[in-house]
Specification:
By secondary structure, the chain is of the alpha+beta class. About 20% of the residues lie in helices and about 25% in strands. The radius of gyration is 20 Å and the shape is globular. Bound molecules: iron/sulfur cluster.
């Protein structure tokens, strides 16, 4: 039998933000810009920079799904976002929040079994062309994994994962359900998402919330009910592109960089636009320059450009003043610990632990008295009190 998870009854609509439907945060409106496959063109980077500088808090913030967020936008000025629409960052008004597509960032550049470059754009277009898929939750996640297991580990609802250069496996909520050729991957993923909606399961947002979803979707899309064991959620940190120089398969060089705390100031975005016609934003708050870049200029701008930088180890949620639930200005605290941190650390303002990385890490959870509880999170998500307990 497939894993059985009772769907929780939904008492409210999914309020995942988009550009056209910003979230009302404590520091103003928050707009999320979807980047299917993480692709950010130079023109789009300049548009985001202009919007952040003139209408927001001055920066774009990387998300754990390889998207960008703008914060501090005026609530009564939706025209401020028209620069993003004009730049082509909202190709569909009906589907903008469901364009959640991850793809292995180094695919076709270095390593991997198949080249999934281009598939993300095709999948995005196919999702937007399906009228029913406008009804997906903004949390529903597609992934195209080139076989290395990097984005398959990000808990996608539907994933095509390569086994060879031309064939792969469809996974539903991490459970392999059958073979699918690379050439059929886009069609099968779209049909599987439509079949998920057709289940009509009490407004479920994610496939893992629906009892027997892998078997149902296998039967609906592939005509079988076979399925394997759920894929173990492992710490796949070693499969993700690390910060630093990358030897391309063609002998050239790519470069992976990390902005401190995932923040891209407007000038950082303009620097990227000058250095590359297109960069790839990853779900690990890093950025791939497919043909390399001026590491010196990027380091001078504050980016981490090599794996030894402590900045690559520390992340934080929005915290105060952006989030009304936060008990502390966690981003300021995170900046103070970057210097001497040797452990992957995520700093959060409350127990919701937003943006926590998948995989083993240390979590610092703010308390009302200004101290932090320390937790150790294992690769399978289990939490235990850290040995150091509370830290000031
Ligand atoms: S973890 Fe808490 S404080 Fe941080 S962004 Fe989420 S809700 Fe806000």
């Amino acid at each position: 039998m497939p894993p059985s998870v009772a769907p929780p009854p939904r008492v409210r609509a999914d309020a995942c933000p988009g550009v056209l439907a910003p979230h009302d945060a404590a520091d103003g409106a928050l707009a999320r810009i979807r980047l299917p496959g993480g692709v950010l063109t130079a023109a789009a980077a300049r548009a985001v920079a202009d919007c952040a500088q003139h209408h927001g808090d001055g920066a774009a913030h990387l998300t754990s799904r390889g998207n960008l967020q703008l914060r501090g936008l005026r609530r009564d000025d939706p025209a401020a976002l028209s620069v993003l629409v004009d730049a082509g960052l909202v190709p569909s008004r009906t589907h903008e929040r469901v364009r959640n597509v991850l793809a292995s960032p180094l695919s076709g550049i270095a390593g991997g079994l198949a080249d999934v470059r281009g598939l993300a754009a095709r999948l995005d277009a196919a999702v937007c062309a399906s009228a029913p898929l406008a009804g997906l939750s903004g949390r529903f996640l597609f992934a195209l994994d080139d076989g290395r297991g990097d984005v398959a580990a990000e808990a996608p609802d539907l994933c095509w994962r390569a086994r060879t250069a031309t064939s792969g496996t469809l996974l539903v909520a991490g459970t392999p359900v059958g073979s699918v050729a690379l050439a059929d991957a886009v069609d099968v993923l779209v049909h599987a998402a439509e079949a998920f909606l057709a289940l009509g399961s009490s407004g479920a947002w994610r496939a893992a919330e629906v009892d027997g979803a892998p078997a149902h979707l296998a039967a609906a899309v592939l005509g079988n009910e076979r399925h394997g064991e759920a894929t173990e959620r492992r710490d796949c940190a070693d499969r993700r592109p690390g910060v630093g120089d990358v030897l391309r398969d063609d002998g050239g060089r790519a470069l992976v960089i990390a902005p401190v705390l995932g923040e891209l100031a407007a000038d950082d975005l303009r620097l990227l636009a000058r250095l590359a016609p297109e960069v790839l934003v990853t779900p690990w708050r890093t950025i791939v320059l497919p043909c390399g870049g001026d590491a010196g200029a990027l380091a001078a701008a504050g980016f981490a450009v090599d794996a030894d930088s402590p900045a690559t180890l520390v992340s934080a949620c929005a915290g105060s003043p952006g989030c009304a639930k936060s008990l502390a200005d966690v981003r300021s605290h995170a900046r103070t610990i970057i210097v001497d941190t040797q452990t992957r650390t995520h700093v959060v303002g409350c127990g919701r632990r937003c943006g926590a990385p998948h995989g083993a890490h240390r979590s610092l959870v703010a308390r009302a008295d200004g101290s932090y509880d320390t937790e150790v999170v294992s690769g399978d998500g289990r939490r235990s009190q850290g040995s150091s307990g509370r830290t000031a």
